[in-house]
Specification:
By secondary structure, this protein is an alpha/beta fold. The chain has one domain: Spore Coat Polysaccharide Biosynthesis Protein SpsA, Chain A. About 30% of the residues lie in helices and about 20% in strands. It is built from six helices and eleven strands. Strands 1, 2, 3, 4, 6, 7, 8, 9 and 10 form a nine-stranded mixed sheet that branches. A two-stranded antiparallel sheet has the order 5-11. Helix 3 runs antiparallel to helix 5. The longest helix is centred in the middle third of the chain and has 18 residues. The radius of gyration is 16 Å and the shape is globular. The two termini are about 30 Å apart.
Length: about 210
């Protein structure tokens, strides 16, 4: 896929246990001109994966555990990053199975790619919880947000992958929060606002 002169390879994390999700998202993406490859991730209940570490940032001393589904999601994307790091493409579009693109997504994404600094590591086409985060306007719809949450539609520069792989080694928090805490401060991260991609059947906090 070529956008504003960038060669970008799209991948969607899917689950073999839930083929209807791939059927659904592949049709939507093709309808929007996105020919994405499926990447088979872990299904939480089937894999039985859990973490022994609590996530207590919001409730110290609670011992709260993120559970099977977030752990499976975390590992699925970590596997994806390692796979992408071995491939030759300079940029990737990392997608969740429920990413929803509007009709005009391509025009807005290309405008953002023309406006974002050329040395960017991550460009969030889909995000959430940016409203109260510190931010600086870059150009057009591109913002430097400290830091965006959600990860349903993100353009990833290959040069960012070793940093993502190196800084995500402990599974204890939901992946987007873990990235915020341990990875995003080490990368050149930009966010399109208002968000381009939303999520089906999910109300996102702006």
């Amino acid at each position: 896929m070529h956008l504003a002169g960038y060669d970008i390879k799209p991948f969607v994390v899917t689950l073999q246990e839930m083929p209807e999700k791939w059927d659904f998202i592949s049709k939507h993406l093709i309808n929007r001109g996105i020919d994405a490859e499926p990447f088979n991730g872990f299904h939480g209940m089937t894999s039985g994966l859990r973490t022994v570490f609590p996530y207590e940032r919001d409730a110290p001393g609670s011992g709260w555990n993120i559970g099977q589904k977030p752990v499976a999601t975390w590992l699925s994307f970590y596997m994806l990053w390692n796979a992408l790091n071995l491939l030759p493409h300079p940029y990737y579009l990392s997608l969740e199975w429920d990413a929803c693109f509007p009709d005009n997504w391509k025009e807005r994404a290309e405008a953002a790619l023309r406006d974002v600094p050329k040395d960017f590591d991550l460009l969030y086409l889909g995000s959430c919880c940016c409203g109260e985060a510190p931010k600086n306007h870059v150009r057009g719809e591109v913002w430097d947000v400290r830091w965006p949450l959600c990860g349903h539609a993100t353009i990833v520069a290959k040069k960012a992958l070793p940093v993502m792989i190196r800084t995500q080694r402990k599974i204890y928090a939901p992946l987007d929060i873990s990235l915020l805490l341990h990875t995003l401060p080490h990368l050149k991260v930009y966010t399109v606002l208002p968000t381009i991609a939303t999520q089906f059947n999910t109300t996102l906090k702006p």
